[in-house]
Amino acid sequence: MNDFFQQIINGLAVGSMYALIALGYTMVYGVLRLINFAHGDVYMVGAFVACYTTRLIQQAFGLDDNAGQSLWTALLAMMVAMVVCAGLGYCIERFCYRPLRKSSRLYALITAIGVSLLLESLLQIQFYIGNMRFFGSTPTHVAQVEVAGTNLSDRIGWINDHLHLTITWVDVLTFLATAICLLGLRYIVMHTRTGKAMRAVSVNFDASSLMGINVNSIISFTFMLGSALAAVGGFVYGLRYHTIEPLMGVLYGLKAFIAAVIGGIGNIPGAAMGGLLLGLVEAFVAYGGGAKYQDAAAFVILILMLLVRPDGIFGKALPEKV
């Protein structure tokens, strides 16, 4: 029983990261009907920006690059990463996808793969500014966060007569970040004028334009918002695993896409639920002795979902427009 609940905690922690990335996939698809395969690499860029922002802050105060960072430094680095990734999302939409909006969807899909490969290749180019190394194929160390002498990687334990569970402070931070982002996104989409415009554009471009909605601005905002959420996921990844590298977005991006499909791509709560479910499945597969098969398990679930319920758990079949 103890191991069962421990795997639930582990699965939810990893699944929360999938959920943060999956939200960006599902938002873009819901508005533009486009699978943005470069989204996983935006997540990777967010992790790097947060890492190097932390290092620059530490150097400015004369601290060692490998020294633990404060919680406020980490939060500032996360906000910088969100801003940078939002700008990157805007540039990707404005210069890569918008010119192809009226072309075949196949062209946009090929472009998305091309942008993904471009970002991965660019960040494998290593260069130095002073004595500080930027990017490169060598894994980059991420400074751990310390609060009042406590490292966020330290474990918290709950013990009673029947149950002993452990959870790290990073797990708690991941849960909080995912919950806040999900609630904030839900509020924006359902209770703001911009969110209402997003929902209108997702239904019909032309009718939305005739009603005075700036369709281009709404689509750009959608990309920016989804990219900012991916940056939060990249930031959490760095705190959890302590190393980042340019190809980290490939597998996590694919798994987040699978999570979005499981929940029903285009459905915001569904994307979050899909991420959590995928994390739980991987945790129990690893616990059952199949650690080397947990990545394959995600793709098996995708195939089964497409065969049994292709619209996802919360998705609805939409009539094809002719």
Please describe the topology of this protein:
Elements: H1 2-32, H2 39-60, H3 71-97, H4 105-122, E1 127-129, E2 132-134, E3 140-141, E4 146-147, E5 150-151, E6 155-159, E7 164-168, H5 169-191, H6 193-203, H7 205-210, H8 215-241, E8 243-244, H9 248-263, H10 268-290, H11 294-308
Antiparallel strand pairs: 1-2, 3-8, 4-5, 6-7
Name the strands of the widest sheet in spatial order.
1-2
Q: What's the order of the H and E elements?
A: HHHHEEEEEEEHHHHEHHH
- Report Rg: 20 Å
Helix fraction by DSSP (H/I, runs of at least 4):
55-70%
Shape: globular
How does the major sheet shape up?
2 strands, antiparallel
So what's the CATH class?
A: Mainly Alpha
Number of strands: 8
Secondary-structure content class: mainly alpha
Domains counted in the coordinates: how many? 1
Q: In angstroms, what separates the terminal alpha carbons?
A: 54 Å
Q: Which regions have little confidence, pLDDT < 50, spanning 5+ residues?
A: none
In round numbers, the mean pLDDT is 87
Percentage of residues in strands: 5-15%
| CATH architecture label | Orthogonal Bundle
According to CATH, what is the topology? ABC transporter involved in vitamin B12 uptake, BtuC
Q: Helix tally?
A: 11
